[in-house]
Every structure is written in C-alpha cells, then in structure tokens.
Protein: 4-diphosphocytidyl-2-C-methyl-D-erythritol kinase
Amino acid sequence: MSCTIVPARLDQADTLRDIERAAQELFRGHPAWPSYAAAPMDAQALAEAIVAGHVWVALDEDGRAAGFVGVAVEDGEIGIAEIDVLPSHGRRGIGAALLEHACAWAAESGYPSVVLGTLSDVPWNAPFYARHGFEAIDPRQYTPALVEHHAHDRERGFPMHLRVFMRRRLQASSEGWTRWPAPAKLNLFLRITGRRADGYHELQTVFRLLDWGDELRLRVRGDGAIRRVTDVPGVPAESDLVVRAARLLREHAGVAPGAEIGLEKRIPMGGGLGGGSSDAATVLVALNHLWRCRLDEDALAELGRRLGADVPVFVRGRSAWAEGVGERLTPLALPRRHYVVLDPHEHVPTTALFQAPELTRNAPPATISSFVSGETTENAFTPVVRKRHPRVAAALDWLGRHGPARLSGSGGCMFLETATREQAEAVAAQCPSEFGAHVANGVSRSPLLAALDRHHAASAGAKTS
Ligand SMILES: C[C@@](CO)(OP(=O)(O)O)[C@H](O)COP(=O)(O)OP(=O)(O)OC[C@H]1O[C@@H](n2ccc(N)nc2=O)[C@H](O)[C@@H]1O
Ligand SMILES: Nc1ncnc2c1ncn2[C@@H]1O[C@H](COP(=O)(O)OP(=O)(O)O)[C@@H](O)[C@H]1O
Structure:
C-alpha cells in the first residue's frame, strides 16, 4: 500500500487519538493492556507536539489518516513518543514508513540517535524495531530521561520484565538535506525615540525568542544555483528573504557553491513575529556552516542587518534589549515565561505603520531597569494599529479580558505572558474561532544555536568515523 506522510494538523488531533485507541485494542489480554488503557495520549501534549511540527500523519490512497508518529526531544536525542497504525491498515508497511520518516527528520535535524520504549514479546514491537536498525539499550547505559521513563512505567504497573528501550544510531541524510529551526520573536515592549536622516526609526525594544517557529531544509548544490524548492504564497522566490540571504552570504564570503532551500512556514506572515527575518538569519547561520564560510557571529549579524532590522537578533540567538534600528543588542536574562500568541489573521504592513503621521516617534528613552521593574510595557504601534485595523483591536480586546495583552512589533499578532504553561493553555483553549491561538515558551537561547551545535557535532563525528 502506498501512503503519503504529511505534518499533522491540529484539527486531526481527535482522529489521531481514535487511531491510538484502535491500535491499543490489539493489546487486549496482554499484561501491558491495563496500563495502556489507563493512560491514553494527553490531548494537550498532543496539540503542543502538533504545533511544534513533531507529529506526522500517514494518509491512505483515499486521503484518510491511517497512522501517525510523534517525536519528542529527550536529553539531546529524539524519542519516538508514539507510533500507531489503524489495525485495518496493518501489515502494509505504514508503520515502517512512519518510523523511517521520523528517523529521516531526526537525522536531517542533526540528532545522533533515536530512542524508543517498547515490548520485547510483541512481534510488531521490539522485533519490528530490530529489523529497522534499533538495538536494545543496556539498562546500565540509560540516559536520565530513560531512567525517568523506566521509573514512571514501573509506577503505572507496566510489566517491566517485558519493557525494553531501544536506540538506533543515525547517519546523515543520503540526499544531503539538513533541517534548521527559525524561531519566532515577540517584542515585549516597543518605544520609538527618534527618526534618522535615512527615514529609519530609532527604537527601543526587548526581543524575546520563542521555542516555536518555521523550519527550513537546506542542502548544498554543486552548480552554484540558489533555489527555493517550496512555494510561499504571496512571496516570489526572488524577493524571499531566504534567497536574498543566501545570495548576500555567497557574495560576501566569496564562495561559489549553491543551495536548495525548503521552507515550512508556520509563523504568520506580516504578523510582527519576525518570521521572514528569522528565516533569513537561519539561512545565514546554516549556510555559513554548510558552505564552510567561517564568518563569525559579528560578520553574520552585520550581513543580517542589511536584510532587515530584525535579522541580527535571530543571528545572535539570545533574547535581548535592543536599540538603534534593532541591531544594537544587549543580551537580557529574562524569567521563564509562557505565552499565548494570538493571530487575528490580519496582515499589518510594517512600512505603512512606521510612516503613520499619528505614530509617537519622539518618546523619551526607557531604561533596562524600567523594563525589568514592569513599568515599561507599551508598544508605540498599538494605538495606530487599533485605529486602522478593527479586527486586531477586537482580538486585543478579547485577549485583554484574560490579562494585559500586548501587540508584538507592528502587529497584527499579539500575546499574553503567563507564569505557567497551564495558564497559557487555558486561555488559548477559549480562543474564538475567528482567531488563531497557540502557546509557546520563551527561551533565552535560540533553538537555531542548538541546531548549529548538533550539526557541528554531526559533521565532526562523520569526519572521525
Ligand atoms: C517593527 C519591528 C519590531 O521588531 O518588527 P516587525 O513588526 O516587522 O516584526 C521591526 O522594527 C521591523 O523590522 P523589519 O521587519 O526587519 O524591518 P525592515 O524590513 O528592516 O524594514 C521595513 C520598513 O520598516 C521601516 N522601518 C523599519 C525599522 C526601523 N527601525 N525603522 C523603520 O522606519 C522602514 O520603512 C522599512 O522600509
Ligand atoms: N521567508 C519569508 N517569510 C515571510 N515573509 C517574507 C519572507 N521573505 C520575504 N517576506 C516578506 O516580508 C514580509 C514581512 O514578513 P514577516 O517577517 O513574516 O513579518 P513581520 O516583519 O511583520 O514580523 C512579508 O509580508 C513578505 O512579503
């Protein structure tokens, strides 16, 4: 049977839980059945994994979901959190295709290995994984995450004599693809303090990087061409910041190779979440590694600045206090916080807002301490956007009922900061259907830098093996 594997969508979550339930039926009578039946997949965790791009669905010839796989990052390696196929679609290679898909994603992302927990006595469990390159892990070699899983399984009454954890070592993609994250940002406040002779505005802002964003696939081409291999509606390849970033790097570094660039857009475009800028920064950082240009962070940030005011912070990969046009950055240690990010589905043009006559562009400078004390939280664009974009105003009003809602950048997306993830999830769950909401964590170090570390380690490992 042929199947197509695609990223899962949030509206498929219930279907995936039905698939899990149906697949579990095969364990009725097995000693593991009571603990499986007692602990179905958590709906919230599944939704988060889908939004993070960590779940893929296998569609049968009729386009119906027949199985899925979900992964989770654990101690720097990838764990298969769940893999299920409808019993009616069993023995047709769908499970194997899903497993290979997850392993390919992990290998392209630079992870060294994939782990999973399974049952030693069930033919479609441990023996199946062994056929796909997984080996049982000696309990003395358990990582802290596996020790925790083991203890948790014991607590929930799992038949531990049948429990086995397995690992598969990964090889770099044979087709040369690599994957890189491009996280979104929030502006925790934004003040405009002046206008420069070139028309650009002097501003002050705090950039908070998130653990959620776009994903790019890159591979080197030998013929010097730079090609975007996915369509982005409304953005022709020539004007896409990813293509412009690759060209700029090549010119500057004086190297001749080319690249293919695939883009999985998740960050709403023109939403004030910096998606295009982050994509550009990811291309600069990733191609600097893949093309072996050896430019340092300062040189890459300077190239980024030429592409857009928001690019340098993504290149440097730290949440930061920013001045100038956004390029003078001071890394800022921010407390652990969670965010409901609300998308009113309205494109707000940044250039037009910066030109608005009613924009306050001569505010007195704020200080880092006034931000840290919670005194400075305003966004200079909010009154202008509210007046010009009633839909954004309505979304701000709705989110404002749950706490102090703030616009990010020039909008139209907005956010609410919470102390716990559960609080953010509770608000997101009530979001009216005309808006989109999701939950993200603030990070102090960009997932892009973690990916760079992984890819460095993977290429060093490939050289020595
Ligand atoms: C407002 C902010 C806040 O983070 O974010 P977004 O809403 O775009 O995410 C940024 O300053 C946006 O940065 P970015 O989106 O990279 O802007 P650019 O491409 O460099 O500029 C787009 C246009 O905005 C105006 N612009 C931008 C930055 C700035 N400091 N002053 C300006 O006047 C210019 O007219 C410029 O032509
Ligand atoms: N790779 C890209 N992703 C998103 N937008 C892009 C990209 N390349 C160019 N653009 C253009 O940049 C504009 C601003 O996009 P984006 O960075 O997502 O929003 P914002 O600047 O509001 O944070 C888009 O409307 C689009 O025309």
Remarks:
- The chain has a mean pLDDT of 95.
- Residues 235, 239-242, 267, 269-277, 279, 350, 409-410 surround adenosine-5'-diphosphate (ligand 2) (CB under 6 Å).
- Residues 4-169 form a domain with the Aminopeptidase fold (CATH 3.40.630.30).
- The CA atoms of residues 177 and 219 lie 5 Å apart.
